[in-house]
Design a protein that fits this description.
alpha/beta, 4-stranded antiparallel β-sheet
Length: 261
């Protein structure tokens, strides 16, 4: 059963991301089974569900790593089903990954600047020194300020702490001015204090953007999300506000009780 309940302020907003009867099978095995969901511009939307529910597959469909078997995906009103990740990125969608994905030998600043270049119109060139690109450097500096890593600007990314590397990856995700950002378990492996700092950072950098997040930490989910969708065996069994999801008996039976057991 699919659910598309919306809270009033979100209902009035244009849709940033729309999934319509989305299916994905690997051979004869269905993984995503008819997911329909609309996510409003500026909404913070969390995807939760037990292990094996299909959350990673759904994220990979939205971000272009997988093509759907059936159904459609619309990004800011444009049909983008089957588009590769680089085309989606150029249309304003960016994502992070469960496993930290950075350039360990480059500095923190250089990692951010790599993400900035294409969004400013720079292409591959052997004839330009990247240090002379004032707009790219300025945008990278602003991103460093947003993720509170200016003091770590010149440190090689590979020697950062785990929490700092996750913050850097969030910076890489937003540096190209994406308006839809997907974060895949951004607080996984963090201490409680580190996770609280990450939530504060995500809340700040997602202002004015649409956020879709997969996260197992229910404290993070209920703290961040405007709405939550619960995925079980490739189907959304509920979409609602955190308060209503917390009290939903079907959700408790399918997920929340086992998560806290």
């Amino acid at each position: 059963m699919n659910a598309m309940a919306k809270i009033p302020d979100i209902e009035a907003a244009p849709t940033a991301l729309e999934l319509c009867d989305l299916h994905k099978s690997f051979g004869p095995t269905p993984i995503i089974r008819g997911v329909s969901l609309g996510i409003a511009r500026g909404e913070r939307h969390a995807m939760i569900g037990p292990n094996g529910a299909g959350k990673s597959t759904l994220f990979n469909l939205i971000s272009g790593r997988f093509a759907p078997t059936a159904g459609s995906i619309r990004l800011n009103g444009e049909q983008v089903s089957g588009f590769p990740p680089y085309q989606l990125n150029r249309r304003g969608l960016a994502r992070s990954f469960q496993v930290t994905n950075i350039f360990p030998r480059l500095s923190v600043f250089e990692n951010i600047r790599c993400s900035v270049l294409w969004s400013l119109g720079y292409r591959y060139s052997f004839w330009h020194r990247v240090d002379s690109l004032r707009d790219a450097n300025a945008q990278a500096e602003r991103t460093l300020e947003q993720i509170r890593m200016t003091a770590r600007r010149d440190v090689p990314a590979g020697v950062l702490t785990y929490a700092e590397q996750r913050a850097l990856e969030i910076g890489i995700t937003i540096a190209g001015n994406a308006n839809v950002i997907l974060l895949d378990e951004p607080t996984a492996g963090m201490s409680r204090r580190e996770a609280a700092n990450a939530v504060e950072l995500i809340r700040a950098v997602s202002q004015g953007r649409t956020l879709v997040i997969v996260e197992h930490d229910m404290g993070v989910v209920f703290d961040l999300a405007d709405r939550i969708s619960v995925l079980v065996y490739g189907e959304i069994i509920a979409t609602d506000t955190p308060e209503k999801i917390r009290g939903n008996k079907a959700v408790q039976a399918a997920y929340l009780d086992s998560a806290h057991a």
